[in-house]
Design a protein that fits this description.
Layout lengths: L2 E5 L9 H11 L3 E4 L8 H11 L4 E8 L5 H14 L4 E6 L3 H6 L7 H16 L4 E4 L4 E5 L12 E3 L3 H10 L2 E4 L8 H13 L8 E9 L4 H13 L4 E7 L6 H12 L5
Parallel strand pairs: 1-2, 1-10, 2-3, 3-4, 4-7, 7-8, 8-9, 9-10
Antiparallel strand pairs: 5-6
Length: about 270
């Protein structure tokens, strides 16, 4: 069974989030996805709000740009949320939009190296390890969380290019693919992530989250059919982004996806 979600995009004001979260909860929708764009909403703050407003909704963050955040701080924030709301948090990390990272003075000369070091240390900290590492970008000396999560959330890695896709498999629990990933491209992207995973954790479950745009006002059957095709191509989670001049308000779209589309998927 696929995990089905809706995306709250960062071009909407934060005060519009609560009705969308409540619509997702009441309709039975599985997931609500947030993301942290410069210079819009914080991914951590919005995730905390949604988790507090709801009781069962799974909340994804895609993505936290790692150049902006010390890895120990991110681990503390995610561990706190995971302990308060066990099993309901799905964080994702990425190297960020490079122009934005340059704009705030945080651009790394090797984004791949930073993402590798960061995701590795973040997963270790969330798994309760005491971490000492001296990398090119991540430096920790005997750092361990006082309150590691009892139910460790998966750490997903945002990826587009082939090297980053393989890195996601090697150092993450799965991958987040942007809306630019077409149905034809998805199987190849999944194979690259799996290739990275085979070298490190060949027997573990891999999450493949795909962001898919939905234009205007399609029928429930049309949306369900499109979601099913992405699942057949390798997605384990499909998060839908509503776009278009004729698109309904996001709370209304969210209820439609949870109440009418999700039941068609079994």
């Amino acid at each position: 069974m696929v995990n089905l979600g809706v995306i709250f995009p960062p071009d909407l004001a934060p005060e519009q989030l609560r009705p969308v979260a409540l619509a997702a909860e009441r309709s039975g929708l599985a997931e609500l996805w947030l993301w942290e764009d410069c210079f819009a909403e914080s991914g951590i703050a919005t995730a905390a709000a949604v988790l507090g407003w709801t009781e069962r909704l799974r909340v994804g963050i895609g993505l936290l740009p790692v150049p902006l955040r010390n890895v120990a701080l991110t681990a503390m924030e995610l561990a706190t949320l995971a302990r308060l709301f066990p099993g309901r948090l799905v964080p994702g990390v990425g190297h960020g939009v490079l122009d934005w990272m340059d704009q705030v003075g945080a651009r790394a000369s090797s984004p791949m190296t930073l993402l590798c070091e960061y995701a590795t240390a973040l997963r270790q900290l969330l798994h309760g390890q005491t971490v000492s590492t001296s990398g090119r970008y991540v430096s920790l000396r005997e750092v361990g969380l006082a309150w590691p999560p009892q139910q460790v959330p998966p750490v997903l890695v945002g990826a587009v290019g082939p090297r980053t896709l393989e890195l996601a498999g090697a150092v993450g629990d799965g991958v987040i693919l942007t809306g630019e990933t077409t149905l034809d491209e998805l199987p190849g992207a999944v194979r690259r992530v799996q290739a990275g995973r085979r070298d490190t954790s060949p027997d573990t479950t891999l999450e493949v989250v795909v962001f898919v745009t939905v234009a205007d006002s399609p029928t429930a059957a049309e949306v369900a059919g499109r979601v099913s095709r992405f699942v057949e191509a390798g997605a384990t989670t499909v998060a839908l982004l509503s776009v278009g001049d004729d698109a309904p308000p996001l709370a209304e779209f969210t209820h439609f996806i949870g109440a009418e589309v999700q039941p068609l998927l079994g």
